[in-house]
Design goal:
Length: 111
């Protein structure tokens, strides 16, 4: 559903794709080797972003964790994407506490 909406939003603008980190950390039993990276990337888990996230300037995103509650970046806050960098998003707060609505912030890539 997200891909359909992002493709319809500003059709003349190409989306930028952000990929999740897909390395597997092995344990002593080496049981993890049986799970392929492709399988992990195909999982759709509620509350987690997809492996491939497409964004365009102006689209709305929602925070899934508390990043900086003192500055209005809390779980569930809606943000409008202003600018997209390789490892950071510049966003404008559009919901939440009225003290923060309209303020801009940077969301770093979390590894």
């Amino acid at each position: 559903l997200n891909d359909i909406i992002i493709d319809r939003y500003q059709p003349d603008t190409l989306p930028r794709e952000y990929l999740s980190i897909d390395r597997v950390i092995e344990d002593e039993t080496n049981e993890v080797r049986q799970i392929t990276t492709e399988f992990l990337n195909s999982l759709r888990i509620s509350g987690l972003p997809p492996h491939k996230l497409k964004l365009k300037p102006g689209c709305t995103v929602m925070l899934l964790r508390n990043l900086d509650p003192m500055n209005g970046l809390c779980n569930g806050t809606r943000l409008e994407v202003v600018m997209m960098g390789r490892n950071v998003l510049k966003v404008k707060i559009v919901s939440g506490n009225s003290d923060f609505i309209g303020k801009e912030a940077f969301i770093p890539r979390i590894r």
